[in-house]
Amino acid sequence: MTTGMFITDFDGVVCDSVTECFLVTYNARGKLRNSSFERVREIETLPVEQRQEFRRLRVYLKGAEDFIPLLMSMEQGIDVKDQESFDRFKESLQAELPEFLAAFYAERDFLLQHEKELWLSLNPLFDKVGTAFQERESFENLRVLTTKRQIDACEIFKFQGIDFPEEYILYVKAADKPQRLSELLATYKATCEKSIYVEDQVDFLVASQKQNIASFLTDWGYVSPEQRERAAQNGIPMISQDRYCELLSRF
């Protein structure tokens, strides 16, 4: 199909979904505690301090199963200071993760079905990246590799006036992302050395770099100081939105 591909993550790179995720997580946690819990629909009614702390901790999440553990760490006053401390807390909840994931998606689906305009409004695109997508005429050499469900990302693109092909949005579990990236390039016979992968999770980039894919960590979105340091240690460049758009324009 092509000699190279531009592959990008979605949440934290294209879309700033943290506000929507906080509202969904808050309601999912409430429903798990009490089935008669009354859903919150106005994010502004929730404490600013909670919203800010949720955004700060978002950098340690890799998939949707992490959101309720994140909120629980806030509730319990757990000192989450790095990836290891969050992963350790999440591991203590391992048996409950399937239930947490189901509750999270049940609440997201409720918003999609009953408050779709609200849900969409809580998923803005990052300014310059969003504009670059809106101005593109073709997405043939571009793929989105994300832990977000395909239909969710597709709805957000449509709301933003972006006719992004649904089949170009590839959903994958966090643990499978490096393998799926490799399979994606092989499927389209894309050359690794001529392809680009952009993420806000450095662990995935360390893996992709070993495949000789030009790998970049965003300097916006959900990136912790710890991830920045690890990127530097592994020779992974950080890029701005301007640089992202310039690289995207080559494909």
TrEMBL record:
It comes from candidate division KSB3 bacterium. This is Haloacid dehalogenase. It comes from the Bacteria. InterPro entries: HAD-like_sf, HAD_sf, PGP-like_dom2. SUPFAM superfamilies: HAD-like. Gene3D superfamilies: HAD superfamily/HAD-like, Putative phosphatase, domain 2.
